[in-house]
Design a protein that fits this description.
4 helices; 55% helix; disordered N terminus; 4 strands; mainly alpha; elongated; two-stranded antiparallel sheet; single chain
Length: 146
């Protein structure tokens, strides 16, 4: 009966095969929840994507008030700064997520470019979550004969 050695990001659980009478042990990897670092990066990325989209929407409303409704530039001053900060935070967080989750160069470029059109970071975030790009890449266990 082979032993299974898990990927470096998971901890193996050793299970005895004594019930079958062989007296051997087998490692079983618990992969129900992602490791803490991957989960933190995923939450950080999703938060940055939502913040970038919300501040974009606020900036658009501020521009509507400034240029169309009454000339008041308070919304542009407030949301312009907030959106600038959210954009500057979103880009490196996206690159961090791309490195950690091993995105292809095309997916990485799409993630960064999603920050330019209004609200596209939310659409990219939903697509990335749906296609498994915000989860750690799964590695198959390696079978080793004792």
């Amino acid at each position: 009966m082979p032993l299974f050695i898990a990927a470096a990001s998971s901890w193996p659980t050793w299970v005895s095969d004594a019930a079958a009478g062989s007296g051997r042990f087998q490692a079983r990897v618990e992969t129900d929840s992602p490791p803490l670092m991957e989960r933190a990066i995923s939450v950080l990325y999703r938060t940055a994507a939502i913040a970038e989209a919300v501040t974009w929407a606020g900036l658009l409303v501020g521009m509507l008030f400034k240029y169309v409704i009454d000339g008041n530039d308070l919304g542009v001053r407030v949301f312009g700064r907030l959106h600038g900060a959210a954009f500057v935070a979103y880009v490196p967080i996206t690159l961090l997520a791309a490195l950690r989750f091993r995105w292809s160069p095309g997916v990485t470029a799409l993630g960064v470019l999603a920050a330019f059109p209004p609200l596209c970071t939310v659409f990219f975030d939903r697509w990335a979550a749906r296609t498994g790009r915000l989860a750690p890449p799964r590695e198959a266990p390696i079978a080793v004969e004792p």
